[in-house]
Amino acid sequence: MNLSNLKPAEGSTKNRKRIGRGTGSGRGGTSTRGHKGAGSRSGNTSKVGFEGGQMPLQRRVPKVGFKNPNRVEYVGVNLDVLQKLSEQHSVASIDFDTLKEHGLVSRNDLVKILGRGELKAKVEVKAHAFSATAQKAIEAAGGTIVKL
After folding, report:
1. With 90 as the cut, is the pLDDT of residue 59 above it?
2. What pLDDT is stored for residue 127 in this prediction?
3. Using alpha carbons only, how large is the chain's radius of gyration in Å?
4. What span, in angstroms and rounded, lies between the C-alpha atoms of 80 and 99?
5. Which of 109, 101, 143, 100 minimizes the C-alpha distance to 129?
């Protein structure tokens, strides 16, 4: 290896046009900012979404409905999923930690057990909420429910 073989590391150089490096660079002079006006000066900033005086998009688009700030979002887990858990992993008690361990919920989620599918296993289920059909199905199978 000698000086004639040296090359920059892969990905260390950029192929962008350097702005404001003299008239011979092809982007000198006004440095692609145009002539005069606020946009040509340093320190110029405009509001996010500003469209040069035209009515901005976020004000042109109609607003519909109501977004409840106090809405409680639950992650639904169905009975067929609980059945599969109890069969494959022979779990007698299904709680938040069990569901999190098997990747069904995340750390800050609230869990609601829903009534799709069939539950044959006798399990104790601990969750934040239960649908009426899920509650009946769990108790019919001989299991118990605990609200967190």
Report:
1. yes
2. 93
3. 31
4. 13
5. 109
The structure tokens 């106090």 sit at 70
CA distances from 100 to 81, 97, 109, 117 (A): 13, 5, 9, 21
Structure tokens at 27: 């982007």
Length of the chain: 148
Give residue-wise pLDDT tens across range 60-109: 999 999 999 999 999 999 999 999 988 888 888 899 999 999 999 999 99
Distances (CA, A) of 132 to 13, 42, 74, 107, 129: 62, 64, 15, 25, 10
User: Distance from CA of residue 26 to its chain's centroid?
Assistant: 43
Is-contact 82 125, C-beta < 8 A?
Answer: yes
Q: Diameter of the chain by CA atoms?
A: 84
The mean pLDDT value of the chain amounts to: 91
pLDDT at 77: 93
The pTM (predicted TM-score) of the whole model is 0.58
